[in-house]
Design goal:
Length: 185
């Protein structure tokens, strides 16, 4: 956990630097960092005899097998991150390194629970699905899209006996693309 936390803070420092140096491509750099981190995980597991299983867990996670104790720990961490973020925002200090540090801690904890693919899809798909909506309706609809996609993915996983994480990722992708056609600019 300590190594993961230190790596997350290192990534936050790197993203802060990149935001100052290349602000016009910050989203692409975040995505690139995410993908490179996943590839580095593959390289670290290459010599492990159980590397295939660990890799599958890293990418697709084990959403159905997350225990209540781990879920409560990550939920508590998430509430703390949200609280610190709100406190910083009220003080006008929630940008730059502070934002990336909080974001990286939350992402690191989430990836350890449900895997890289599900975390990445959960961050991106609802935002893509609701990109043409304004303000509060956008946030509410993003939660709705995400929740429905999770329910659909888990339902498909159950009925077709497919891996739950991958099914949810595909459902999020379909929801995002479908919403692009539904809500035209």
């Amino acid at each position: 956990q300590l190594a993961a936390g230190l790596a997350a803070l290192g990534a936050a420092a790197l993203l802060t630097f990149c935001e100052r140096r290349w602000p016009d491509i910050q989203e692409a750099l975040i995505g690139l960092l995410f993908v490179v981190a996943a590839a580095a995980g593959i390289l670290l597991l290459a010599g492990n005899p159980h590397g295939g299983e660990h890799l599958r867990d890293l990418l697709a996670g084990q959403i159905l097998w997350v225990g209540w104790k781990r879920l409560a720990l990550v939920a508590t961490l998430s509430l703390a991150v949200l609280g610190v973020r709100a406190w910083l925002a009220r003080r006008g200090a929630g940008e730059g390194f502070a934002f990336y540090a909080l974001f990286s801690v939350a992402i690191t904890a989430s990836v350890q629970l449900v895997g890289v693919l599900l975390v990445f899809a959960s961050l991106i798909a609802p935002a893509v699905a609701t990109r043409s909506l304004p303000g509060r309706p956008r946030i509410s609809f993003a939660f709705l899209v995400g929740g429905l996609a999770y329910a659909a993915g888990l339902g498909i996983s159950l009925t077709a006996d497919l891996p739950a994480g991958a099914a949810v990722v595909c459902a999020l992708g379909v929801a995002a693309i479908g919403s692009l056609f539904l809500f035209k600019d």
